[in-house]
Amino acid sequence: MFKKVLIIEDDAMLRSSIVQTLELEDLEPIPTNGFTQARRSIRHNFRGVILSDIKMPDHDGFDVLRFAQTKDEELPVILLTGHSDVPTAKRAIKEGAYDYLEKPCAPDTMIEALHRALKQRTLIMENREVRDELEQTNSDQTEGTLSERLEMHERRIIEEALSDADGKVAIAAEALGIPRNTLYDRMGKFNIVAKAFRKPTGN
Amino acid sequence: MFKKVLIIEDDAMLRSSIVQTLELEDLEPIPTNGFTQARRSIRHNFRGVILSDIKMPDHDGFDVLRFAQTKDEELPVILLTGHSDVPTAKRAIKEGAYDYLEKPCAPDTMIEALHRALKQRTLIMENREVRDELEQTNSDQTEGTLSERLEMHERRIIEEALSDADGKVAIAAEALGIPRNTLYDRMGKFNIVAKAFRKPTGN
DNA sequence: AAAATTTGTCCGAAATTTCGGGAATTTTTA
DNA sequence: TAAAAATTCCCGAAATTTCGGACAAATTTT
């Protein structure tokens, strides 16, 4: 599970207090004093969540939220808000903020919210990874001649076997259940050289 | 996104109030009056989350939580708790509850928490689906003779082509770039009959 | 109902693949 | 360094695959 929490808070005291709270919970706070400083950390595939004050000198929490959404639509942003700003925070949620915390808030409450956000972020990133993987393995071949597709597959099988056998043709041939000579025949057809598959680790 | 919310609440008034709140938000409440009644709805792959009172005549929220976890480790459970029971709720969170709400709670707050839980549940289920799919397509063949693996693949290609061609061998053959007769040869080898691929829609 | 098209099967020649044997060369092992 | 093993290539016979032609049966179109 992810642990990074990008903290955007101009009040130095509060900021370090939050950092301490998170560190006690084995999270990884990344403290910043405002939007400008935080900006470069906010990027697609950020492996964590954002915890931002809503009211700051230069920019407000909405700036953070909007910027985060341009970088990654599914990057959870939790806003810290004073009691009088709760309606603002609710509006922020409608615009995609993940949650808000009313200042001052109990450490427990903050940790609970962060855990939920981090869990969601982890799930989102896992989802993306698995989907990418699926797309790759699925992009096998959907067009082309039967023989072209079969040759593509045969090449892959042979290369995989050679790779597993550390480039040793004899071993690969046995694994594939064919005589060495036959494998050489096939390799010749596909312009595969065994050397390319030797020494998978180091050199 | 999922919308089901299994409500476990013995107080009929509060229960119907919650139902109304959820319906206004286009969610799908499933009201029950206690653990016994809810039990049969709690199952693996439930497409929603659980919202349960923590203090009830027959069983308490922990019973619900534990039972849910035996059915599905990743089924979010939100607990409704009186003010005096907040410490209990925090303990429940450590045991895997997703969140808790202090009674009486503002409809907005409840909806926000439910949305987060439903979003997480949706992500979890998507994750499972994609992983299953990946496992299937990945279980191609990692062992066996070269010819065995190639034949398996050839069979799949042919069946896919026939399926696309509505079981018409001539069309499938053209798509595969081979003469019709050759495809018949191959089909004979694999015991594939074209009829099996006809009429994919209706009859 | 007749005509036209498609299906499914068989045949046989040409092309390709398989595979054992052999042998020169390189790499690894002892 | 000597021996053992593996690589890479060539050959040729046996087996398999490809593919066009032909044709009866089944289906669809007209």
TrEMBL record, chains A, B:
The biological process GO terms on file are: phosphorelay signal transduction system
Residue ranges constituting the Response regulatory domain according to the UniProt record: 4-118
Q: Does the keyword Transcription regulation apply?
A: yes
At the top level of its lineage, which domain of life is listed? Bacteria
Q: Which SMART domains match?
A: REC (SM00448)
Under Gene Ontology molecular function, one entry of this record is:
sequence-specific DNA binding
One Pfam family this sequence matches: Response_reg
Which InterPro entries does this UniProt record tie to the protein? CheY-like_superfamily (IPR011006), Homeodomain-like_sf (IPR009057), HTH_Fis (IPR002197), Sig_transdc_resp-reg_receiver (IPR001789)
Its keywords, alphabetically, are:
Phosphoprotein, Transcription, Transcription regulation, Two-component regulatory system
Carrying 4-aspartylphosphate, the residues are D53
Q: What is this protein called?
A: C4-dicarboxylate transport transcriptional regulatory protein DctD
The gene that this protein is the product of is dctD_2
